[in-house]
C-alpha cells in the first residue's frame, strides 16, 4: 500500500522518471517556458523549485548538488548566473502553470510551465518605452519662424553623429594615361 506517498509516478519507472524530470528541468531553465501535460508540469514544479532555491546560495556544494539533479553544465551555469539573480528576493513560487487546451491526439490536459520572473505580461514593472524620435516635415502654414532654428538642431546633431560614426575614406586619384593619336583624331584635335 502507498499510504501517504504523494509522488506522481507518471506511469514510468524510477530511473525513467528521474531522467525525464532532469531533461524537462534543463529545458525549462534554458528556454524559460515549456509546454507539457498538466501532470508532468505539476511534477516538474516540485522538482525544479528546490533547485532554484538551492541556486540562491552559490557555493561549490550547492552547484554539485544541483548538477547531480540536472546533469547539464550549461543549464547549471544559467541557473546560478541569470536565474538566481532574478529570484534573489523572491521567497518561493518561482514557476507558474497555465492550463491550455487539451491535446488533439489523446485529449490530454496540456499546460504551459514558465519561470515567473521571465514573463513580461504578468510582471509588475512596466517596461521602459523609449521615445521614438521621428522627423516630421511641417507645411509652411503650420511652421512658425521661431520654430525653424529649433527644428534644425536635431538635424545638425544627426549629421554630426553620421560623420563620427563613418570616417571618411579618401580615394586615390589616378592620373589619366596620355591620349594616343587615334583618340585625338576622334576628338577632332
Description:
- The protein has about 190 residues and is mainly α.
- The protein has a domain at about 15-120: 50s Ribosomal Protein L17, Chain: A, CATH 3.90.1030.
- The chain has helices spanning about 15-30, 40-55, 60-70, 75-85, 150-165, 180-185, and strands at about 35, 95-100, 110-115.
- Strands 1-3-2 form a 3-stranded antiparallel beta sheet, with helices on one face.
- The termini are far apart.
- The model has no long low-confidence stretch (mean pLDDT about 80).
- This is Large ribosomal subunit protein bL17.
Regions with little confidence, pLDDT below 50 for 5+ residues: none
Strand content: 5-15%
Stated plainly, the CATH topology of the domain at 14-118 is called 50s Ribosomal Protein L17, Chain: A
If strands are numbered along the chain, what order do they take across the biggest sheet? Answer: 1-3-2
Number of helices: 6
CA-based gyration radius: 32 Å
Main CATH class of the domain at 14-118: Alpha Beta
| The CATH architecture of the domain at 14-118 | Alpha-Beta Complex
Distance between the termini: 115 Å
Shape from CA axes?
A: elongated
How many beta-strand elements? 3
The largest sheet, given as strand count, sense and whether it forms a barrel, is: 3 strands, antiparallel
Helix-residue proportion? 40-55%
Structural class: mainly alpha
> Residue-averaged pLDDT, rounded?
82
What sequence of helices (H) and strands (E) makes up the elements?
A: HEHHHEEHH
CATH homologous superfamily placement of the domain at 14-118 = Ribosomal protein L17
Keywords: Ribonucleoprotein, Ribosomal protein
Family: Belongs to the bacterial ribosomal protein bL17 family.
Protein name: Large ribosomal subunit protein bL17
InterPro entries: Ribosomal_bL17, Ribosomal_bL17_CS, Ribosomal_bL17_sf
Amino acid at each position: 500500500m502507498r499510504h501517504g506517498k504523494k509522488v506522481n509516478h507518471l506511469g514510468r519507472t524510477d530511473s525513467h522518471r528521474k531522467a525525464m524530470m532532469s531533461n524537462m528541468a534543463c529545458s525549462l531553465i534554458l528556454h524559460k517556458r515549456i509546454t507539457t501535460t498538466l501532470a508532468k508540469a505539476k511534477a516538474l514544479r516540485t522538482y525544479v523549485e528546490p533547485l532554484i532555491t538551492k541556486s540562491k546560495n552559490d557555493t561549490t556544494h550547492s552547484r554539485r548538488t544541483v548538477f547531480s539533479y540536472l546533469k547539464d553544465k550549461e543549464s547549471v551555469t544559467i541557473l546560478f548566473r541569470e536565474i538566481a539573480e532574478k529570484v534573489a528576493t523572491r521567497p518561493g513560487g518561482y514557476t507558474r502553470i497555465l492550463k491550455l487546451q487539451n491535446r488533439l491526439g489523446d485529449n490530454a490536459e496540456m499546460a504551459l510551465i514558465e519561470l515567473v520572473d521571465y514573463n513580461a505580461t504578468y510582471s509588475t514593472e512596466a517596461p521602459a518605452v523609449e521615445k521614438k524620435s521621428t522627423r516630421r516635415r511641417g507645411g509652411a502654414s503650420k511652421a512658425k519662424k521661431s520654430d525653424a532654428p529649433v527644428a534644425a538642431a536635431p538635424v545638425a546633431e544627426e549629421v554630426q553623429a553620421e560623420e563620427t560614426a563613418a570616417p571618411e575614406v579618401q580615394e586615390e586619384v589616378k592620373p589619366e594615361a596620355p591620349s594616343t593619336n587615334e583618340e585625338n583624331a576622334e576628338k577632332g584635335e
